[in-house]
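Predict structure. Chain length: 795.
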Amino acid sequence: MSLFATKSIAVLRAEADAVTERSLKRTLGPFNLVALGIGAVIGAGIFVLTGQAAALHAGPAVPISMGLVGIACTFAALCYAEMASAVPVAGSAYTYVYATMGELAAWVVGWDLVLEYAAGAAGVGVGWSGHFVSLLSLFGVQLPETLTVSPTAWCTAAQVGTMAAPLCAHPGLNFTGAIINLPAVFIVALMSTVLVIGIRESARVNNIIVVLKVAIVLLVAVVGLMHINPANWKPFIPPNTGEWGSYGWSGILRGAGLVFFAYIGFDAVSTTAQEARNPQKDMPIGILGSLAICTLLYMIVSAVLTGMVPYADLNLPAPMAYAMQHVGAPWGVRMAIDLGAVLGLGSVILVMLLGQSRVFFSMSRDGLLDPALQASRPRSAVPDTVGAVRTDHGDSLLLRTDVDASRGHVDPARRLVDHRVRDLLRVQPETQPVAAGDCGKEVKTPFFGMSTNGVPVPPERARAAQEIATVLTPERRVVLTTHVNADGDGVGSEIGLWHLLKARGVTVTIANPTGIPERFAFLIPDGADASDRAVKEIERADVIVVLDIGDLSRLGDLGHAVRQRAAPTVCIDHHVSPGSLPAGPRLIAPEATATAELVFDLASALGWPLNPESAKALYVGILTDTGGFRFSNTSARALRVAAALLERGVDPEGIYEQVYASAPEGRIRLTAEVLQTLVVEPGIGLAWVTVPPDALDRHDATADDLDGIVEFPRSIAGVRLALLFRQIANGRIKVSFRSMGAVDVADLALQFGGGGHKKAAGASFEGSMADVEEKVLSASRVYLQAHGERRAARR
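Prediction complete.
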């Protein structure tokens, strides 16, 4: 498998929707999702980083820093909200990138997310430890410093020798002399245990914590308003000290960069998309709602905090508790703050570890980690083995890091992930599934979706493509087939699809009822065509894909084998027909120029890039079905698709020579003989030709050499309906219908059990040539006369 191979969103959705005793369960509602976002965001930003941002960088203007980060995160949140609702699968950005950019990019983003959540949980764990120690001190309990401080600290030159950073002896890495930050290790282990119990229980615990946390934040705001000293806000934007990021507007921006670390929670909501009850509706509410609430709370609390205490004094592990102590707030308020911080920071850790476990789950599901890591507990539907890996990883980081070092790990990873989520929306395929219609049923396509290959895909086609992708998976054996005496569209569409599936690791074979015509042999990949053993291939197939037809009768003797196999039968077609194929996904669009156009749309909707070989085959399909872009079915969209194929390396002159300028002498002599049978009835606009019974043998020609002959009688001035009669296998007579103007030959052919397009259709009959000619010509005269009368009446 290529490192750049993508995994279709339809397959991801099918995997997510598969219900087993070990699959993730959809139990989260909109309140749970908003609470998860608040639980992750409200924590380090308010309880730890707010004071540091004010003291070191922004001063009283730290609310501006908070607002700027909120605005910046809104754009990323919109991307996450769109992707999480459209692709409600566990894994967040990792899964989105896998679906659109390939395995290598997904591997990088997946490990970035693991780093982000691990370092985020570690950094918040250190902050939690500080508040926990402060809370215990209110009750007279003192823990030894060697067990409550990180063994190392990363210091800047500005921190060396200050009271706010007493452990900083020199810039860079400092050893503090501590053994372990035991409270931080404890909280990570505790939250991991809560997660293992179950997602429903974890959400309930988080909901309770969030309610308490928000209540305490509002309490702080109310109490703080009564102790604000406006002098603390002057100057609101302290003058820059001469160093970039040290106050002034550069300080506001640097402060925004510092508190950006605190906003990583909103994207953690997207990791639970596979557990949301109604992800299309609830994921945007959860992501955008939590971000809006948190931004507002940050701005309010940071403004109150800097109004209570001089900003220079806030570079502390617990600035909020210090502020209340500074203004002499009652003991109960200070205790509530420490309690709220302990609970609140605990919920941040809970959500960080929740998000990391879902990334592990998705990566292991895709084979990028040990498959054992995707196992989940049957009762709780929570990945179980991930807990141990996650806890060990987080605890080991906590043993040797402080908040600044953790933030240094998170920020680069976070920025990379956000950039990738934003960029992949440029190639996001339409992702909403819908049940496919019956083969032959017309599909309305009034709107357009996104496309990977350069041309927007109508949503109904994109939705049908998603359903088709659920059966075209690597573990299944797929057989492609098309109608008897395949034309350029049948051959081009099936060979184009063969290349696309082969690139995705699917075992795929072409098995047609008759051999591929010689003039299209240049398209056939080595080993692809098994038409000489078509029945055996059908009998071995797990999935059958029928292209350019919707009726079993047009598969000749192969139709019986398809019916007997009873495998899921995909139909991709642009004809109107009775639709007698076995059940399976359908992509039917009679308004499409060619079936090759629909295969192009299938690839675009699923995010499958076209290589030069698949593009060449699809170009042949569109070229031949439009008569070299001359027929009335040549639409503006067909030309855009053709242009997109040319951009992928198609050589139009070379293809023209192969298809139209390499005719054997027998084809020309056959054409001349058939045209000798021409009969024209100019009064009603009818013309027809008949292929003599032994003409193909005498000219050493094949049925493919008859292609295009019926266009000669259609080109006669005044002719509205042209017919070609010829004998085919089993003594049947095949009639090709072509029309000009408003005559709908698909409607006429349907009277005889045939089908096709408005301008080109066909049907086969039992009986002698004379009987079939009499029957069809009689019906054609009646049809033309009635059609002419209706046209005259309209005039």
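Summary: The chain has a mean pLDDT of 80.
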